[in-house]
Amino acid sequence: MAIKVGIEKGKLFGPRIYFVGPALGFEDTTISTGVRNEAEVRKLIAHAASFGVDGIKIQLPNLPAELLRVVVEDAHKRGLPVGIHVADDPTVMTAREAVEIGVDLLIHAGGMAFSMIQDQGRRKRFLEEQLPIREGGGDPWYLVTPA
User: Fold this and answer.
1) So what's the pLDDT on residue 138?
2) Residues 6+ apart with CB under 8 A from 106
3) What pLDDT is stored for residue 69 in this prediction?
4) pLDDT tens by residue, 105-131
5) Could you tell me how far CA 41 lies from the centroid of its own chain?
6) Full-model pTM
7) Top-tier CATH class for 20-136
8) What is the 3-state secondary structure (H, E, C) of 65-133?
């Protein structure tokens, strides 16, 4: 976080950094913190927000839709966008379902059609956020662009 702040204040030279903290999932893994109920979701989002995160990251496929709704609601109340890893496995939540719930960014969604986004404003925003990544050629570990 000190590097991010240093860059923002012009004391260090570097890229813009978006900090999302640990990803939320339904179970603890090497890349996610497990949440099992609404209270745990709200507690972890409040904790992340207290550190000044730029957004909340969700690990799929292991977070149920009912908890994702709580994440989106709580994060949006705090002005934080929600990014989510997506899966091609039809037995878990699809990217379309995540977008319909209100997720702001599909992470590592290379090659995925944006036609699933019905609202034109959200579609435009999704494209604006994704195109610079593809033009750069890389697939960043995460990217959350605040609304």
Assistant:
1) 41
2) 83, 84, 86, 95, 98, 99, 112, 126
3) 94
4) 877 665 455 555 555 565 555 554 544
5) 14
6) 0.70
7) alpha beta
8) HHHHHHHHHHHHHCCCCEEEECCCCCCCCCHHHHHHHCCCEEECCCCCCHHHCCCHHHHHHHHHHHHHH
